[in-house]
Fold this protein.
Amino acid sequence: MKKALILHGWEGHSEENWFPWLKTQLEKQDYQVIAPDLSNSTYPVLEEQLEDLAGIELQSGDLIIAHSLGSQLALQLIEQRKLG
């Protein structure tokens, strides 16, 4: 199954902005969508948020969609797991 990870940004959460809409649209296209609430979004620590994602299996070709500061997290995740 195709997989998509949606990462919110600073002071954010998974139910704000366009995230719920995008999740619904991707699910209609048969994606398994993961949209976690990352820890401490008001004062984010990259290492802590990477740990939030530790249990999520991703492989090359999966979608990672990030908003705001979530982009930095996405890039670190890609580098850490060598998904690029």
